[in-house]
Write a structure and sequence with these properties.
The chain has helices at residues 42-51, 86-93, 104-111, 171-179, 189-192, 195-210, 219-227, 232-256, 273-276, 280-286, 292-296, 308-318, and strands spanning 6-11, 15-21, 29-35, 61-66, 75-76, 83-84, 97-102, 119-122, 133-138, 142-150, 153-158, 261-264, 300-303, 323-325, 328-331. By secondary structure, the chain is of the alpha/beta class. The chain has 2 domains: 6-102 and 309-319 and 326-331, Nucleotidyltransferase, domain 5 (2-Layer Sandwich); 115-304, Hexokinase, domain 1, CATH 3.40.367. A 7-stranded mixed beta sheet has the order 8-13-12-9-10-11-14, with helices on both faces. A 6-stranded mixed beta sheet has the order 3-2-1-4-7-15, sandwiched between helices. A two-stranded antiparallel ribbon has the order 5-6. A hairpin with a 3-residue loop joins strand 1 and strand 2. Helix 4 crosses helix 6 (195-210) and helix 8 runs parallel beside helix 10 (280-286). The longest helix is centred in the last third of the chain and has 25 residues, at 232-256. It is globular, with a radius of gyration of 20 Å. GO terms for molecular function: ATP binding; D-glucose binding; glucokinase activity. Keywords: Kinase, Transferase. It comes from Methylobacterium durans.
C-alpha cells in the first residue's frame, strides 16, 4: 500500500512530529518536532523536518495522523489553524500516495504489539487479558480509539469521545461544575480532561474552596505545584483530574467492552502516574454497577514510550494488511 521510504507524522494541536520509515519493518527515524504555531501550513513544517533529516532519503509516500475528525479531503485541526489535505501534501512533495487518519488510529495500532516495558500499570496487572483494547489520552485535547479483533485482522475504531458531555457525581463535583468555565456553553470530557481542562479545573477548585475567582494558570505549573504539595488547590485538582479520568476510561471501556485493557497516552498521564496510582483513578474506573466485577478485571496502563504514535504509524506503513481503519486516502493516477 505504501511506497518506501514513508514519511510518517503525528500532528497535534501544539506540535507536529515527523519521521521516516525507510524500509518495510524498519523503526521510524525521527526527523524533528515542529510547533504548529511556527508554520503557516503542514507542508512548511514537513519541509523544515526534511531539511533537518541530513542524509535521509526523500519520501515516496506518507501517512499522517491528525488531531481532528477525518471526514473529507481537507480537514481542519481541532485545536490549531492548519488544514490538512493529503492530495496537497502529496503534490507538494511528489509522493505516490498520502493517507490521513485520526491521531489515535496509530496509537491503537501500536497498542497491538506494545512491550510491557513501555507501560506503567495502574491497578492490577493482568497480562493474560484478551479482547478489545482501548487507547485514549488527555493532552492538548482528548483522543480515543478502540482496537477490536475482527476475524484475522484488527479493526481500529476512531472516536470523538472528547466532545461528549461530562457531569458531576457528588456534591463537591457539582460545586466545581457550577464554577468551571464552559466551552461553547458545554462541559465536555475534553473541556476538563486536557491541558486546558486542567487549568479550568484548578481555577474552579480554587473558587469553590476560597470563595474567590482566579485567573487560569499554566497546566505544567499546576502539575508541578500539585506533585510537590506546594499548592493545596493544585494537589486537589490533580486528584480530581485522576478520578474524572478514571470515570471517562471506565465509560469508554464499557462502551467497547475493552476487556483486553485500557492504555492511556497523551502528555499528561505519564507526568502524574503517582497520582493515578493513589487509588482514586481505579476506584472511579471500577465503580460501574452492575458491571463492577467485570471492570475490576480490566487492566489499565499508562503508555510511557516516547512518541507512541510514530511507532504505530510505522506499523500501519509496514503491516497495513493486519488492520482495518478509516482514513483519507489519495493516490497518484496511473
Amino acid at each position: 500500500m505504501f511506497e518506501f521510504p514513508v514519511l510518517v507524522g503525528d500532528i497535534g494541536g501544539t506540535n507536529a512530529r515527523f519521521a521516516l520509515v525507510e524500509a518495510k519493518g524498519a523503526a521510524p527515524r525521527v526527523l524533528s518536532h515542529e510547533a504548529t504555531a511556527g508554520h503557516p501550513d503542514p507542508s512548511s513544517a514537513i519541509r523544515a523536518a526534511l531539511a533537518k533529516g541530513g542524509e535521509a532519503p526523500a519520501p515516496r509516500s506518507a501517512i499522517l495522523a491528525i488531531a481532528g475528525r477525518v471526514d473529507g479531503p481537507a480537514v481542519q485541526l481541532t485545536n490549531a489553524h492548519w488544514v490538512i489535505a493529503g492530495e496537497r501534501i502529496a503534490r507538494d512533495f511528489g509522493l505516490s500516495s498520502a493517507v490521513v487518519v485520526n491521531d489515535y488510529v496509530p496509537v491503537a495500532a501500536g497498542a497491538a504489539g506494545i512491550a510491557p516495558d513501555d507501560l506503567t500499570v495502574i491497578g492490577p496487572a493482568r497480562p493474560e487479558a484478551q479482547g478489545a483494547r482501548l487507547v485514549l489520552g488527555p493532552g492538548t485535547g482528548f483522543g480515543a480509539a478502540a482496537l477490536v479483533p475482527y476475524a484475522d485482522r484488527l479493526a481500529i475504531v476512531s472516536t470523538e469521545a472528547g466532545h461528549t458531555e461530562f457531569g458531576p457525581t457528588d456534591a463537591f463535583e457539582e460545586q466545581v461544575w457550577h464554577a468551571v468555565e464552559r466551552v461553547e456553553g458545554r462541559v465536555t470530557v475534553e473541556a476538563l480532561l486536557s491541558g486546558p481542562g486542567l487549568a479550568r479545573l484548578h481555577a474552579a477548585v480554587h473558587q469553590v474552596r476560597s470563595g474567590s475567582p482566579r485567573d487560569k494558570l499554566d497546566p505544567a505549573a499546576i502539575t508541578r505545584a500539585g506533585l510537590a504539595a506546594e499548592d493545596p488547590h493544585a494537589a486537589e485538582t490533580l486528584a480530581l483530574f485522576a478520578r474524572l479520568l478514571g470515570r471517562a476510561c471506565g465509560d469508554l471501556a464499557l462502551t467497547f467492552l475493552a476487556t483486553g485493557g485500557v492504555y492511556i497516552g497523551g502528555g499528561i498521564a505519564p507526568r502524574i502516574v503517582r497520582v493515578l496510582q493513589a487509588g482514586g483513578f481505579r476506584e472511579a474506573f471500577e465503580r460501574k454497577a452492575p458491571f463492577a466485577q467485570m471492570m475490576a478485571q480490566i487492566p489499565t496502563s499508562v503508555i510511557t514510550v516516547h512518541d507512541p504514535a510514530l511507532t504505530g504509524l510505522a506499523a500501519l506503513a509496514s503491516e497495513g494488511a493486519a488492520f482495518v481503519y478509516h482514513g483519507q486516502i489519495w493516490r497518484a493516477a496511473g
